[in-house]
Design a protein that fits this description.
The protein is elongated. It is mainly β. It has three domains: 43-81, no CATH class; 94-124, no CATH class; 134-230, Jelly Rolls (Sandwich), CATH 2.60.120. The N and C termini lie far apart (104 Å). The longest helix is centred in the N-terminal third of the chain and has 10 residues, at 46-55. It has two helices and 15 strands.
Length: 231
Amino acid sequence: MADSITVTPTTQTITVTPAGGTTTTIQSAPTQTVTVSSTTSHYTDEKAIAAARGAISITGGIGLSYNSTTGVITSLSTSASTATLGIAENNIPKFTTNVSDNDFLRIDGTSVEGRSASELLSDIGAAAAAHTHADAYTGQIETAADKTYTIDPGAVSARTITGFHIKSASGTCTATLKVGSNVVKAASVSSSSGDQSSLANTSVSVDAVITLVVSSNSSALDVIFSVEYTA
């Protein structure tokens, strides 16, 4: 009677670390039970090994390939020590010595160099943008009255008043532009008034209140005004 042995493969764990890659653990979970007898031409566990190899699977994108016939696991990664330096596809970039934190990067031949903000502006022939802008408060008072009209209850940022224009469609009044309690200009308003000169106290701080105080009103109608500023 021929002797026989039953081989049942168990789950095996293989840990692989490709060059320059991340360590990956691979498990095989074969389910095939193989019975081998002494009359078999090869009294080995080759069938069990083949079953184990067939049960191994490797997820794509981890830098490994697997041959289920030979059981060989191959790294698809290229060692950094043997990779080509340069700027072509799949090359490893080489940085020059003048690269610093917060630099912009520029290709210099086949290397990468750092450029500061001022150097970048010089490279592209540009100048630093001015961080100020011009704007204006504008409004119209249809029927003027002797009272205080609030133009800005609290400036959101510091600014400088650069111009003041005011006139009426008919009638007259005095309109005093103020920053807080400081007088910028007391204008005599009529249908022929307009741009005002000799402005004072033009600096406006954050949260400062800008007002237009109308007094000596004499039937002034459709009073239009513009207060120009830079911020």
